[in-house]
Amino acid sequence: MRVRQWLCGALxxxxxxxxxxxxxxTEEVVVDLSRRGVEISPAMYGLFFExxxxxxxxxxxxxxxxxxxxxxxxIPKGYRVDGLKLxxxxxxxxxxxxxxDRSFEWHGGKVRAWSLKAGDPSAASMxxxxxxxxxxTAPNNLEVTVRGSQSPVQVINEGYWGMGLKKGERYHLRTIxxxxxxxxxxxxxxxLSASGDVLALxxxxxxxxxxxxxxxxVLTPSATDGKASLALEFNAPGKAWLDYVSLFPEQTxxxxxxxxxxxxxxxxxxxxxxxxxxxxxxxxxxxTLDNRFEWKKTLxxxxxxxxxxxxxxxxxxxxxxxxxxxxxxxxxxxxxMFVCNVGLGCQFRMGDASSEGDIPYYIQxxxxxxxxxxxxxxxxxxxxxxxxxxxxxxxxxxxxIGNENWGPEYDRRxxxxxxxxxxxxxxxxLIYNEMPERNGPMQITKTDMVDPHYYVAPEFFFRxxxxxxxxxxxxxxxxxxxxxxxxxxxxxxxxAALSEAAFIGGMEKNGDLVxxxxxxxxxxxxxxxxxxxxxxxxxxxQVVGRASYYVQQMAAENKPxxxxxxxxxxxxxxxxxxxxxxxxxxxxxxxxEFKDIKLISGGKPVPLSLEDFSRRNGAWKYEGKVxxxxxxxxxxxxxxxxxxxxxxxxxxxxxxxxGSEGFLLYFGxxxxxxxxxxxxxxxxxxxxxxxxxxxxxxxxxxxxxRPYEGLETGLWYDLKLxxxxxxxxxxxxxxxxxxxxxxxxxxxxxxxxxxxxxxxLVLKVVNATETPYPVTFRLKxxxxxxxxxxxxxxxxxxxxxxxxxxxPRKITPVVSAYGDFGRxxxxxxxxxxxxxxxxxAEKETLPET
Length: 849
Description:
Blueprint: H1 3-17, E1 27-32, E2 47-48, E3 80-82, E4 85-87, E5 91-92, E6 99-100, E7 104-105, E8 114-117, E9 124-129, E10 141-146, E11 153-157, E12 163-165, E13 171-179, E14 187-192, E15 198-203, E16 213-219, E17 225-234, E18 238-249, H2 262-269, E19 275-278, E20 308-309, E21 315-316, H3 322-332, E22 335-340, H4 359-374, H5 380-387, E23 396-401, H6 408-424, E24 429-433, E25 449-451, E26 453-456, H7 458-463, E27 477-485, H8 494-509, E28 514-519, E29 523-525, E30 536-538, E31 543-545, H9 547-557, E32 562-563, E33 582-587, E34 590-601, E35 604-605, E36 613-617, E37 620-623, E38 626-629, E39 636-640, E40 648-659, E41 663-669, E42 676-682, H10 683-686, E43 688-695, E44 698-707, E45 716-724, E46 727-732, E47 735-740, E48 748-755, E49 760-767, E50 773-780, E51 782-785, E52 789-795, E53 814-818, E54 824-829, E55 833-843
């Protein structure tokens, strides 16, 4: 059984085990209004945008024509196409020096989204050319040749899986075309229904003089159709060239030209975002630096923007560019966050690094982006912003330096960027990537914020609401820039949403440290799911917020000013077990050797092929019956195939050959090495033995630990790991060092805070069980409590329930009145629910805690 399946299945069995007794006792929770907790940041909840899942093109960006500039088939510099694969030139991965030769998705050789319709197929043809381009930055154009036909020839664009047209609304068509001298026919623009009926038409006035003409007109469809298309029709022999074809609804968000799809943008505005992060995500770095996202190319006339092949398998048009992002921030009252490239390609892909001499270019590019947003009109880029239509500065407040980068080279470059940006713009908040794969402790001088990411199973969020309780304070704050429950929950379900609600409560409880957070990914076109679980779904006609969307909305709309403590004790019901999974070996910034590896299960030896691995990270080799790792990387892994167990004994000898720490033994692991458990012998600078849970390659909470005198270099140590479903034990040289019994997953949570402007106690309660959860609240330190208050409930019939295109509001918040609040009151929370109680309550003078 795979671990992801187990995580969901086991958690569901925990839910059931805790709910078999229908006579559930009422729990008492004391909320102490006499103690003031930590302030919750006004910027706590924001949005993370990346061009993934056609989030922008075919989504938030209102353009209806796909491949409008005919640039979709442009291959990134230095790449080649091999069948349906795109291959970059092999690049050296800067962390290890290995040369990576990989392939990525490619859509094929046809003119994407365009087709030719003629009564006689031999009477017309089309092909891409770069003949006399209108814009050197976007040189492709479509040459259409009509040789003669008894019926008109149509060049048709299908949009993004159909164009969503609405009856009676105005749509603006812009096309840049030229007609060869001698063409005697007409050109007509038509909106076509899914069945081919004409919904609207208008002549395209263009002289046949061989010159480019920029033509604009308005089309108004006679019917609503979510699968419509756009056609340009030619009715005489001759040649035509199309450089740009664009169709925009007049009703964009805030009526902005080159603007955003109104219904999608309104869903984002409904989250009340305090900030907006852009442009990503992995697109920031690109597969290689050659196809990174370049903000300067997103400015100016949309027809001149070249776009870029996205790391997610399609070309980004650059339509939703830097200016449009900044304008959207202004429109919704959000601060902008710009993510810059530090001269590193995506480390999950090719991981190339720019030369030392090019680093100043990347620093200057970042400074230019800031100047574009904030600079006076007397500056170069401030003047460009004014020329683009916005003389006043935009609300840029945050700069994230790099995206999901790690290692000593990133740390070195971060310092250079931080110093340069802070010197010129001291008022900005600068953010460091705190990646779990990074090469050991941060080796930077200073940062304002760090950005960890969490893509996990429900169990992780339920178990780790206290994740930030023990984080060191004083050095920097935390921005949880990407987080989502996306493992074992399909495209998303109520259980995922409830686990996120619990985790949000933990972040608010640590509001002095966790100052900002944003769910990721944000948007998904239902026809292009590149990431398993996303917050908002849409197609050409409809927008759907998942249950998780409403959790985010409820949290943002009911953010207290500060926390107040409560004495809720987190406990699970029933029993828990380790998952059945793979075993493996590893090291942390240490060179190691393993030999005499034996695995026993059911009292019998299990044959092992030590050359057969499912995941290898680090510089590993297996020679002379010794498995060795010789690099100085952090978190190396050698996960074995052929083992999938939760009941075994693993024995081996291990020795440290160099480095600062020690050995890692993995168990209960997924084959990709991203989820499971890890015994760390000699961790934390060779000073501890620990058991840690791993989720999304992220070392989570320490489950057990003890001090250790340290490993000596060159000495062989006997290691023995005994694992049963309900217990694990680690022995070193015959001495038991650690043991651990997995605890049941807690599924009921209470977060409490006070809304100062409204004079209200805010209680946020998660009940992820299938039975009601009655709680008696006692409000300590409260003055007068108004009996009448408000209850906001998000609930589902089961943990697996979710909204859908057929039932988009199946799970949605319900607001109701409640008239029995007091210093002591009882409320019964529905099964599978996230509930917010708002209670008018006076408070005593609150001392600082």
